[in-house]
Amino acid sequence: MTIAIVGAGLGGLTLARVLHVHGVDAVVYERESSRGARGQGGMLDIHSGQRALREAGLFDGFLAIARGEGQDMRLFEPDGTLLLQEDTPDDAPLDRPEVDRADLRDLLLDSLPEGAVRWGHAFDSADNGVLRFADGSRAAYDLLVGADGAQSRVRALLTDARPAHLGQNVVEVGIPDIDRTHPDLAAMVGRGNHWVLGDGKSLAAQRNGDGRVRIGLSFHNTGEDWFATSGIPFDDPPAARARLVDLLAGWDPRFTALIAACDDVVVPRSITALPVGLTWPSTPGATLLGDAAHLMPPVGEGANMALLDGALLGLALAAHPDDFPTAVAEYEREMFERTSAAARMSADMQELLMSPDAARRLLAFFRPG
Ligand SMILES: Cc1cc2nc3c(=O)[nH]c(=O)nc-3n(C[C@H](O)[C@H](O)[C@H](O)COP(=O)(O)OP(=O)(O)OC[C@H]3O[C@@H](n4cnc5c(N)ncnc54)[C@H](O)[C@@H]3O)c2cc1C
After folding, report:
1. What is the DSSP string of 183-243?
2. Which residue, 272, 305, 325, sits at the end of a domain?
3. What is the pTM of this model?
4. Nearest atom within ligand 1 for CA of residue 29
5. Atom 9 of ligand 1: nearest residue by CA position
6. Which of 32, 114, 273, 351 is surrounded by the most beta carbons within 10 Å?
7. Helix (H) or strand (E) segment spanning residue 167
8. Is 76 inside a domain boundary?
């Protein structure tokens, strides 16, 4: 019985690892040509997903890469008013540590046997137990697991649902080696998260393990065509930075100084999500996990759910090695309930963050009463 996993992201690799721990073989097909072919983005806050890393036998490895101080938080209003500052004590429990996405992916990749991941295999289509890849090659499968992320191609085998734009567009920029290049800004950002929430705009800066500060500038209640009409020249980074500073007119100069200090990596990102509570009739031979199954707003649940999906599907398959349909039905029942709750919570948080009085509402969220 051949298990084919499409996508070597956090969810697909966790599934492969948990299967490996239980002596079940699987092959992971990944479209990227190698593990380093593409940057893996910034930090992830890992909480409920810690259980998955225990099931994968990788908890000690996780602790070695987890950054407790990454939980620090500073919340400002655009005029510079500091509303909240929380610094994590050295002996605080690692309830929600930050981990570099690339480190976590490497931990999972290094835990798999040689050849478990077939790089350079972009899934194209599947039917009658045969996978087809973009380069024309083929492979046989008994169970196909779509772990191919937000823009999943496998998803279409199970549901017509597609991610919808949430009225939020983000421009990602960053300051490399901030301690050396801009120590004053490094002190303002601190060791973890630095948020400025305004009316219709927000700035989320976060220190990464490699000394880079990644900054996401969000523009709320903006449409799918916003990048084309925003006047941000993405092919001219200095002019793009100048335009971003203009778009933050009236903000405290310390915050616009963050933008001016960024390097030439300027990336547009539209925020989309699948419908909350998406399900599909259980189908023998195929299922989904992670963002492919339940893409939600990026407020700290997606990676945790993907890790849990991978681990719990792995455990279900290991418990029913001769009966994949039963294992898949068991997995999907639990996954639909758990991830619907997480998606609802994420949608509520997204609504709060996009509201005109987001800063005060977030303060009340963290400091109720
Ligand atoms: C800015 C940002 C910040 C975030 N922060 C957090 C956070 O703090 N905490 C949290 O829990 N979540 C966070 N998330 C969400 C989290 O990153 C995702 O939910 C998580 O990575 C999903 O994992 P996955 O394995 O489903 O998909 P992915 O990690 O996206 O992996 C999918 C893999 O499939 C591959 N692939 C795609 N198409 C094909 C194909 N056709 N053939 C073969 N391979 C293919 C891709 O190359 C990729 O390797 C954040 C998201 C964003 C955008």
Report:
1. HHHHHHH-SSEEEEE-SSEEEEEEE-TTSPEEEEEEEES--TTHHHHS---TTSHHHHHHH
2. 272
3. 0.96
4. 43
5. 300
6. 273
7. strand 164-175
8. no
- For residue 306 and ligand 1, the question of a CB distance below 6 A is answered with yes
Q: Is 291 annotated as a binding residue?
A: yes
Answer yes or no: is 338 a known binding residue: no
pLDDT in tens, 78-107: 999 999 999 999 888 889 999 999 999 999
Residues 11 and 132 in one domain: yes
Q: Which residues of 188-214 are buried (b: 16+ CB within 10 A; e: fewer)?
A: bbbbbbbbbbbeebbbbbbbbbeebbb
Q: Give 315's pLDDT tier (boundaries 50, 70, 90).
A: very high
d(CA 253, CA 261): 12
Task: List, in order, residues 6 or more apart from 56 with CB less than 8 Å away.
Answer: 14, 17, 18, 21, 108, 111, 311
Query: Please, which residues have CB within 8 angstroms of residue 267's CB and are 6 or more apart in sequence?
Result: 171, 172, 173
Question: What does pLDDT average to over the chain?
Answer: 96
Ligand 1 and 98: CB distance under 6 A: no
Counting atoms of ligand 1 from 1, which one is nearest the CA of 295? 19
Kindly state whether residues 51 and 107 are assigned to the same domain. Answer: yes
Q: Kindly give the distance from the C-alpha atom of residue 291 to the centroid of ligand 1, in angstroms, as a whole number.
A: 6
